[in-house]
Amino acid sequence: MGRKWNNIKEKKASKDANTSRIYAKFGREIYVVARQGEPDPELNQALKFVLERAKTYNVPKHIIDRAIEKAKGGSDENYDELRYEGFGPSGSMVIVDALTNNVNRTASEVRAAFGKNGGNMGVSGSVAYMFDATAVIGLEGKSEEEVLEILMEADVEVRDLIQEDEAVIVYAEPDQFHTVQQALKDAGISEFTVAELTMLPQNEVTLDADAQAQFEKMIDALEDLEDVKQVYHNVDLGE
Question: Which of 12, 69, 211, 227 is deepest in the core (most CB within 10 A)?
Fold first, then answer.
């Protein structure tokens, strides 16, 4: 798989002088999923997932509580979930997931982030077919063999399981996210370094130094947009 999930997360979290931007994005996402269903994570699987993911980014409890209370309060603030697809330097591929209350603004900003950094937006479906939706769960304190044994005893099927530095990373079908995580929790594991539903490229590409520098600038510009929730790509950045 080769994505070095812990390093990717740390890079995202440390890019800002503070993490207020990441927290704000989580607050918006929590509000949206809590408003779409029950504001109780035990009754709303989508909310439960977002909260698990927020935990891996150390989102403060007061931000989570405020977003859920806002949803309970019947706020009429509406957001649309959008997906943009595009190409970066040297034919690299990018998927951008956004959550916005102004579709025209977001489309314009995403298009500009691509265009100003050597990329261009594509039509729907031009890139996504080269990616696979995947659940990714990471943990520390257990060996690859121990995690495999836990999952086998729980009769849980996964796509892959590998060691990355000090962490074990489990890759599974998206609909198995909660099943995998629950099996690990039942075995006494309560902390996860990664808890993501992501889009993994079927093949990664390597760029030369100049193209990679331009590509990273483009990814930074996309991730910095207020409305952008997640950015996926097929470039091996050597993390």
Answer: 227
Q: Is 87 left (phi over 0), alpha (psi -120 to 50) or beta?
A: beta
The answer to whether residue 157 sits within a structural domain is: yes
d(CA 119, CA 38): 40
Task: For residues 149 and 116, state if they share a domain.
Answer: no
pLDDT above 90: residue 115: yes
Tell me the average pLDDT of the chain: 89
Domain-ending residue, one of 72, 90, 109: 72
How high is the pLDDT of residue 165? 80
Q: Read off the pTM.
A: 0.89
pLDDT at 29 over 90: yes
- Is 170 a member of any domain? yes
Q: Which of 23, 41, 72 is the last residue of a domain?
A: 72
Query: Following DSSP, what letter does each residue of 101-165 receive, concatenated?
Result: S-HHHHHHHHHHHHHTTT-EE--TTSSGGGEEEEEEEEEESS-HHHHHHHHHHTT---SEEEEET
Please give the Cα distance from 231 to 201 (Å, whole number): 12
- Which residue range forms the structural domain that includes residue 181? 131-201
